[in-house]
Amino acid sequence: MKEKAAAFIAKSTVKAADKEHRRKINFNIGKYNAVVPKGKEQFLDVHLAREKAKNIKWKAIETLDQQLETFEAMITRRGAKVIWAEDAQQALDAIQKICVEKQCKTLVKSKSMVTEEIHLNDFLEKNGIESVETDLGEYIQQLDGEPPYHIVTPAMHKSKEDVAKLFAEKLGTDPKATPEELTLTARKLLREKYVQAEIGVTGANFIIADIGGIAVTENEGNARLSCSMPRTHIVIAGIEKVIPTLNDLGLFWPLLATFGTGQRVTVYNTVITGPRQAGELDGPDEMYVILLDNGRTHILANEKQRESLYCIRCGACLNACPVYKNIGGHTYAAPYSGPIGSVITPQLNNMGDWKHLSYASSLCGNCTEVCAVKINLHELLLENRHESVQEGHSPFAEKMAWKMWKQGMLHRKWMNMAGGKTKNWVVNTLVKGWSASRGKMEFPQKSFNQLWKEKASK
Question: Is the CATH code 3.40.50.10420 the one for domain 45-294?
Fold first, then answer.
């Protein structure tokens, strides 16, 4: 517990003081902020659209078992195989079994946060299988040996000069190459991998229950190539990604595009309903869909936290969060960063180890304000804090401090006796965490209660 919290504080302290990092993040988020209002213009009433989307996700999550069973029944009719994985290890074992059966040496993978959650690339590497990220941002991060920095834009913290330098070191390109030249280099290398790969892996932006389909949203076309060129296609999706009907995409695709990247709609939107059918000319011979729980039913059972399962992973809350913009995505040391990550990571894993993330918030409410499906994120962060205390994860010193505060607040005379000097000493000397990164607190010599009494007596 203490190790993870201490590492988080140490990393965030360094990042918060890194002005160059802040410049890059502010530049990239500034570009995002400039285009999102334009994307919102496609909605007659964007707040109503968000409310409707939230209601659809409410229905999907409240009837999750039925929705998933319907999905399984529909997609298996067209030859796909559905695998239920209770945890990350079961999902990895299932993938390994498929890889062994197909004698897989090379696997191409489109951008997927759930594969980061189960650490798929590391697992495949240990088993002698080359796993290649085909999303340009993810490919950059893989070359640099880093996990994604952001849910939507994995290499947000890198400038074009950083990428040019990385490609020069890893691929031997010109250190002064333009972004267009770097993109063409990556495209050439990745196209060769699509041809070589025995298996392609994608995530799912949405699981469509009524037709038994997987909806994938992208801007590069790499997901389409990953799921169609290799002979075997594996989908890995969290069970919360379900939506009830195909018609719901008419709302969710524009919402995801607008709140994710500021577009009216992303460049490529694909619905996959199974492997290649009789008479079709392209597509995989086999398709597997791994439905991953990995702690999601724990959140489902928590009536107050269940709302976090509505998330469509647009990343808007990260871009709006003042904490994220100062400490960056890698500081969280978890696949899901920012406000939504701070809500779900302690729930998906262990509250004792990860409760510190729920305290890494100013509770300004900006995350709730920008959420595409109106999740009350700041309230869920508070609920996480409450649960961590209820479960007994508070240190002894913190418990004693609150007991002392309670006693003081219950006795007005005690509060008045503890004048400015005493309060200054407690906060600036005894509470070491305050003065470590802030200026000294200066309390007035007399409390408002004392001043009011003096005024009333005149």
Answer: yes
